[in-house]
Amino acid sequence: MKIINSLRFVLLLLLCIGLLQSCVKTDDYELPETSIKEPQIPSENKTTFKTIKSLYEQAINGGNSTVVIKSETDLFIEGYVVSSDKSGNFFEELIIQNKTDGSDPDADPRLGFCLLLNKSNLYETFQFGQKVYIKMNGLIVGENSGVLCIGKGDGVRVGQIQASEIPSIISRSPEIAEIQPKVVQLQDLTSKDENTLIQLEHMQLNRFELGASFSSEAYDEFDGFRVLESCDSGVSVMMQTSTYADFKSLIVPEGKGSVSGIYSRDYGDDFNVLVVNSSADVLLSNSERCDPLELHCGLAESFGSGNLLVEDFEAQKNNKPIEIAEWTNYIEAGTQAWEAYSSTSSNASLGRSARFQSASSGDTSNIGWLITPPINLDEQVGETLRFKTSNSLADSSFMEVLYSNDWDGTEAGVLQATWAVLSAAYVVKNSDSFVPWFNSGVVDLSCGTGVMHIAFKYTGGGQESFDGVYELDDIRIDYIE
């Protein structure tokens, strides 16, 4: 009897060991990281990000939408992970760049790719700053939501690399590098900075975003977009936060400071965005904000029947600078001015409109002012302003509606005057559709006094990430008779 019981005990023990072994995952990518050895990849099997990007550009020039990487031998690129999905703001993708230091003056440019992977919780395997090697044979390079990505697919579109394929495609190095983001001004960013880590200094959330969460408002669908603006130049970019991020319900910081994140494009490839890895990357702790002066009488319920100014630009000549008596078309920077424009395309003008376009200007900066004749607010009551705006892919350029009570009416005096924002006026946003025209609302001016000039100011430049088009029409200033 004792022998039988002993045999039963041994069999039971062996069964338990077998069950335990069957529950252990043997995939190296699921095991705790105890030791990772440096992959031994011969230098002759390595290529650069620049070469892969050039192959893609060759394919595009040949009429293709993607390129399939083909090589007689194994071909690898090496890069560093600069994204993390730990906070939920990235999903099933890795962002890798080829350099650890954004200020590196090396001749080979700093470039980045996104890797589309059918796997979540990637941070458990790929740490921020980890060096990785990507085996490119048979992979596809092409645009996904406006940025260059690497994946699998049918040669037309870039799809995901399946989870089971990841170990044979991505090799990890034990090296965890310290990544230094590129510190840059918004207006200096180009498409070459996409999929790379950047840092923006002297930034703040637009004053109209204060009190909002990162992405848990009723109007946030899939992603929340909050306007980040530069205190140095006024240029803005959308900060994009997934509605699945674990910090979505946090209230955005009210101060100014620095923000670090991945420079990218929104899902629809309509505008530039900054995607942070976590809320800790939004360091806006300086309480001294740089909000502009403003006149805010609100929106009026109606407008009067008297007219102080009506301008629809119909008398202007197409593609020529706006020239209207008592108006000022002032070029602060660059070579472009507000011009008359007429189009019947999908982004049609309203007959003839005023347009500012910096694309192909060749200028680093384009700033143009279109300023109305003087309006004396003390001679009547119930003054209101109305106008319409539209854009053609604003690309981080922007338009403001300003006013001054002390401008002397000369071009030399424009920059000497005190200008403030008419904050109740709605101007088409970077994220708005480029087809329709948007009404400003009936902007109440009646709380202002004295002689006022109103300016429509465009800020942009010739670079592709900053060269949007704004259109303006049907300007009216009315009063109650």
Distance between the termini: 114 Å
3D shape? elongated
Q: How many beta strands in the DSSP annotation?
A: 31
Percent strand: 35-45%
The radius of gyration computed from the alpha-carbon positions, rounded to a whole number of angstroms, is 28 Å
Count of DSSP H/I helices: 3
Sequence-ordered SSE layout with sheet pairings:
Layout: H1 2-23, H2 49-61, E1 66-68, E2 76-81, E3 93-97, E4 112-118, E5 130-135, E6 140-144, E7 147-153, E8 158-159, E9 161-162, H3 166-169, E10 170-176, E11 182-183, E12 197-205, E13 223-230, E14 236-242, E15 256-265, E16 272-275, E17 282-286, E18 294-295, E19 306-311, E20 328-333, E21 339-341, E22 353-357, E23 366-371, E24 375-376, E25 381-392, E26 398-404, E27 420-422, E28 438-439, E29 443-444, E30 451-460, E31 469-480
Description:
The chain is mainly beta and 481 residues long. 8% of the residues lie in helices and 36% in strands. The protein contains 3 helices and 31 strands. The strands form 4 sheets. Strands 1, 2, 3, 4, 5, 6, 7, 8, 9 and 10 form a 10-stranded mixed β-sheet that branches. Strands 18, 20, 23, 24, 26, 27 and 30 form a 7-stranded mixed β-sheet that branches. Strands 19, 21, 22, 25, 28, 29 and 31 form a 7-stranded antiparallel β-sheet that branches. Strand 6 (140-144) and strand 7 (147-153) form a beta hairpin. The longest helix has 22 residues, at 2-23.
